[in-house]
Amino acid sequence: MMKVVAITGKERAEIREVPRPEAMAGEVLIKIDTCLLCTWEQRMFGGDSSTTLPFVPGHEASGTIEEIPEGTVTSFKVGDKVVFKTLDHCGHCSYCYQGHTNQCTGTAKKRSYGGMAGSGGLAEYITLDISKVFPVSADLDPVCAAFAEPLACCVHSMGRVELHLGDTVAVIGAGIMGQLHALLARLRGARVIVVEPDKTRRELALSLGAHLGVDPSASDPVEQVLRLTDGEGVEAVFSTVTKSSVAASAVSMLRKMGTLVLYGSFHPNEPIPTDPNAVHYKEYVITGSYSPSTVDFFRATRLLSAKLIDPMPFISEIFPMEKAQEAFTASLRPDTYRVGIRIDSHIRR
Fold it and tell me: What are the C-alpha distances in Å from 264 to residues 172, 175, 217, 247?
């Protein structure tokens, strides 16, 4: 048996005991160490999700290989530190075949925990096909390793733009995803402008390497960005704020032939007015970014293992598993970045 954290109702997270999964041929059994709480889990906990409850959530997680059954051919060894994709893809639809696993249209394997559906990051153990498991360096802190999934999402977003050395980008929003975008843009040789009304978040971005900060509450952010770019605008805007009105104004920050990436889902989902002639004459590119593909996940693990990205400034608090209710409640506070739950300390050895 093992324990899991299940969301059982609005603002209710409970620990339940369920059968421990058995790894089949082609899979490994992973002992989970740490799981971070994403906005998806927060919406579920807050009652703003259509997900059927009870549900065992969690997808930003790290752990170690616990067991490799006969029939699994792999270079992994028991004890290896790993991260993993819990949001599955089928592997054989037209998108998966082309490497766009984040756009899978097939039927992926579903997991069940004592009759409860779940992604499974908030369980003591998980079984996964080895194609969804990624190694990380042995000296990488498990909390840092758990950032592989959100970092992979941002790696995918960065890949939607063709950036060149010396380009200027604007990152709208300095929450966790905005901060990661800013770090990645700097790594790619861009000058980074962070647009964020919260002074503390804006200053954190600047302390971590962003070049310029814009306070949109002080004056028109579009005018500020244009002033900082001699009236030309930026090569790319990454809008990480889930408000349609903010995304609409972001287009006006672009220079000719610039790219706007709409990162994240919108709640509420409201239309964004667009000037089609501006798109036509200025050759704007407006695109989205949804979840990481397999290669994005791999690149994120290399960035973390090589210490090219340090996510520790974005850890607000780590709770033990038995305080999952407190962890979820804390994750809803606007002054937090990532709140995590340490699973490993609860495992009976």
Answer: 12, 12, 22, 11
Q: Are 24 and 331 in contact (CB under 8 A)?
A: no
> How many distinct helices (H) and strands (E) make up the chain?
11, 18
DSSP state of 310: -
Q: What CA–CA distance (Å, rounded) separates 313 from 209?
A: 13
**What pLDDT does residue 347 have?**
45
Q: How high is the pLDDT of residue 345?
A: 62
Q: ∠ CA 166-192-190 to the nearest 5 degrees? A: 25
The DSSP H or E segment spanning 170 is strand 168-172
Token match 């709640």: residue? Answer: 267
- The series of mean pLDDT values per 10 residues for the chain, 349 residues long, is 97 97 97 96 93 97 98 97 93 95 90 95 97 97 98 98 98 97 98 98 98 98 98 98 92 98 91 94 98 97 98 97 98 96 67
- How many residues comprise the chain? 349
Please work out, in degrees rounded to the nearest 5, the angle formed at the alpha carbon of residue 49 by the alpha carbons of 108 and 251. Answer: 90
Cβ neighbour number for residue 310 with a 10 Å cutoff: 14
Token digits for 34? 């740490």
pTM of the predicted structure, to 2 decimals: 0.96
Residue type, 269: N
Q: Cα–Cα–Cα angle for 130, 41, 297, nearest 5°? A: 35
Which pLDDT score, from 0 to 100, does residue 109 have? 79
Do you find a cis peptide bond into 54, omega within 30 degrees of 0?
A: yes
Q: Where in the chain is the domain with CATH 3.40.50.720?
A: 153-289
Assign domain 153-289 to its CATH architecture. 3-Layer(aba) Sandwich (3.40)
What is 2-147+311-346's CATH topology?
Quinone Oxidoreductase; Chain A, domain 1 (3.90.180)
